[in-house]
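Tokens as discussed.
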């Protein structure tokens, strides 16, 4: 699997570290709502299809990236810096090829 880092270009997934589900909303750090913190720490989506994920290019520029990956095909439809500076759109595979 290749992930196209907006800064470094296409790189093998071995250079990246999965950082978790990109859909979670972190509660206010001062919050003592234990149900909200429990949900933030333990609840995970497990979709069949596109999923927002956070990856770090730990073997490269070390940027944190927001990746939309199809969990069934591993096709990546978009990659962006978490802080929203640049976006890359990887080329899609030609239809009919796998
Ligand atoms: Zn990079």
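Sequence:
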């Amino acid at each position: 699997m290749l992930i196209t880092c907006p800064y470094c270009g296409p790189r093998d997934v071995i250079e990246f570290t999965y950082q978790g589900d990109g859909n979670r909303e972190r509660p206010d750090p001062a919050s003592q709502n234990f149900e909200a913190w429990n949900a933030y720490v333990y609840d995970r989506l497990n979709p069949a299809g596109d999923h927002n994920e956070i990856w770090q290019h730990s073997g490269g520029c070390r940027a944190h990236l927001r990746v939309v990956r199809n969990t069934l095909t591993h096709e990546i439809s978009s990659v962006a810096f978490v802080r929203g500076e640049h976006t890359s759109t990887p080329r899609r595979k030609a239809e009919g090829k796998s």
